[in-house]
Amino acid sequence: MRLHFLLPLLLCAPLALAKAPDAAQLKDIISRIDQQRQPAGGVELQVSLSTLQDGREVEQDAYAITSDGGGNALLAMQNRDKRGQKILSTKQGIWMYFPKTRRPLRLTAVQQLQGNASVGDVLRTRWSEEYKLAADAPQLAQVEGRNCWRVTLEAAQEEATYRKIELYLSESQFAPVKADMYTFGGKLMKSAWYGESANLGAFRLIRSTRIISALDAKNGKETLYVVKAAKNIQVERDAFSLHALEVGQ
User: Fold this and answer.
1) If phi over 0 gives left and psi between -120 and 50 gives alpha, with beta otherwise, what is residue 37?
2) Cα–Cα distance measured from residue 29 to residue 191, given in angstroms and rounded to the nearest whole number
3) Nearest residue to 87 via CA among 69, 60, 114
4) Is the distance from CB of 103 to CB of 89 less than 8 angstroms?
5) pTM (2 decimals)?
6) Is residue 154 classed as helix, strand or coil in its secondary structure?
7) The pairing of beta strand 146-155 with beta strand 139-143
8) How far apart are the first and last CA of the chain?
9) Residues 132-165: pLDDT tens digits?
10) Domains of the chain (ranges plus CATH)?
């Protein structure tokens, strides 16, 4: 067959689609993303949450987060007017401590920390533990002109922050691009947009995350979460106990 007969056939042939990651690959990908949000082992993160209006910062809070990378995390507020306030997150629950109070207050993961960021967005970052992969296979989708795989995560625990997360991964690198979070009532609550991972000390972390409430999607308001510093530390198991929180240690 001559070449000029082949060309129309080649032009009409469908383009090969990228191969979707299978379930085993997705589990590894989600675990890797967990490590880029809050690494395993004893670690201390210096982070900030800023509320932006039309790109202009109107509020910022600083926090120190101590984590064992296994589901226990302690957040200490650094702003002068909030210094001494702490939030403890364990598999048994979440509590907030205020100086000069007798007992910590019980919180839920969905309660607001600052702006559009909830307590769970910052302290409950183990997607591989709190969620399971939905039965639906990943689907190709467009996110602001980028080809992504849409993966559905469903709550595997009653304490999970959200009922469902629609996670968008870059087509080739499987890096997180966007996540849509849904309430247990099935409504879209917020979306998170993830920056690229970068080296920070001994870690490779997602340095910045933009969080936009479904109600604020059109009014120019968003919350920016930034990891500013990270270091390995030795953590005592008692540091994540309710008793330690009650006595303000």
Assistant:
1) alpha
2) 20
3) 114
4) no
5) 0.88
6) strand
7) antiparallel
8) 82
9) 999 888 999 999 999 999 999 999 988 899 999 9
10) 21-246 (2.50.20.10)
